[in-house]
Amino acid sequence: MTIAVIDYGMGNLHSVAKALEHVTHENVLVTRDARSIQGATRVVLPGQGAIRDCMGELERTELSGLVRELLANQSKPLLGICVGQQMLMDHSDENGGVDCLGFLSGQVRKFPLDMQDTQGARLKVPHMGWNLVQQPNAHPLWNGIEPGAHFYFVHSYYVAAEQDEQVFGTTEYGNVSAHVAVGRDATFAVQFHPEKSARDGLRLLENFVQWTP
Amino acid sequence: MALSKRIIPCLDVDAGRVVKGVNFVGIRDAGDPVEVAQRYNQQGADEITFLDITASHEDRDTTVDMVERIAGEVFIPLTVGGGIRTCDDIRTMLNAGADKVSINTAAVTNPDFVREAAERFGSQCIVVAIDAKRVSADGEPARWEIFTHGGRRPTGLDAVEWAQKMVEYGAGELLLTSMDRDGTKAGFDLGVTRAISDAVAVPVIASGGVGNLDHLVEGVSEGHADAVLAASIFHFAEYTIPEAKRYMADRGITMRL
Hints:
The complex is a heterodimer.
Chain A: E1 2-6, H1 13-23, E2 27-31, H2 34-39, E3 42-45, H3 51-60, H4 64-73, E4 78-81, H5 83-86, E5 91-92, E6 98-99, E7 106-110, E8 127-133, E9 149-155, E10 157-161, E11 167-173, E12 176-184, E13 187-190, H6 198-210
Parallel strand pairs in A: 1-2, 1-3, 3-4, 4-13, 5-7
Antiparallel strand pairs in A: 5-6, 7-10, 8-9, 11-12, 12-13
Chain B: E1 6-14, E2 17-22, E3 25-31, H1 33-43, E4 48-52, H2 58-71, E5 78-81, H3 87-96, E6 100-103, H4 105-109, H5 112-121, E7 126-134, E8 144-148, E9 153-158, H6 159-168, E10 173-178, H7 190-199, E11 204-207, H8 213-221, E12 227-230, H9 232-235, H10 241-250
Parallel strand pairs in B: 1-4, 1-12, 4-5, 5-6, 6-7, 7-10, 10-11, 11-12
Antiparallel strand pairs in B: 1-2, 2-3, 7-8, 8-9
Helix pairs in contact in B: 1-2, 2-3, 6-7
């Protein structure tokens, strides 16, 4: 029983690995070795920074073929985090436009820079900090987590999925309703950082570790 | 709903102990960093900032070890600052489990370092720390300048212009400390906090001078800060984090309770 955290050189994998180790006795492996990833029972696809770099590193390390295969087969649970969520969509507006993995229909868009709150104060971008996550559709990964729970975000781009039934979490920021949890079959992906979201974040990771789709 | 405003307890760490100085002199011991961080995590702190104020090289390894231990037990964002001068320093801290690093003096001596760091690691983990001091006399239009070396060395840089430049270079967040107020418990310098908060698109953390809960409220409501950082009011148990959050929420500020 091994959980593979895919290491393609982007993002703080240690936080994800440490948080997983906190909720499971299973072996947590941060790896870019194709055989280890294929042999794992579960896979986490993290990501941080610019999406062009993330997609580029995935291609360069030749892990993109493997990730596409995992997504096509849906033979084991996969959790995408942050840019790891965005990469599952068709296309991102970041970096002048980047084609993504196209596992889910939808786009990745930038928060408008001119948003204001109800008092007229400027809303900062990146959307950084704790915000509420609603649960438009039920999902086993929400077990024990209340609708409207707080999760920790750091991002300037957000997912706009096309199919309502694939949206499991939404967060309001300014006039945007971002799709912060999406998925289908054995794949679930979140924009926020469960590994940094205190108790509810750890609960989501625990749910992932126990999930049998 | 809006984003919650954040309360960030700050651990100033010297030689493996949490300390707190008054205007950076007169240091008091406030405990073991890992225990202190765990306590704040349990209390519902939104984030933790770890500032390494150690000068010696040997103690750097202690810091990395502390960061690793905190990151293994505290699952909220952790920012590490103090002596971050190279991309290798950043990589070391991120590998130890930090989520963000705070760059201070190195940003002033070499602004391109901020650009390089943001390009390499992403703006989301690059915090630029700004130590500002008021340089205008009473009655003059307010003006603040950047100081380095714990507030001892003036740079001649205008604080608001500097903040904008750092954001342009890729800072994802600014940690603004008023050197006039730090350690005084007289409240934030709301003038500089508001001037910088309103001038940049990224979140601003107000720091320096918190002595009571009204100061935290003012930092957000009058200073327009996105987060408030405090040390001694929490270290010496004058207030707990939940008390502070409740107090702010009761005054209409969106908080994660």
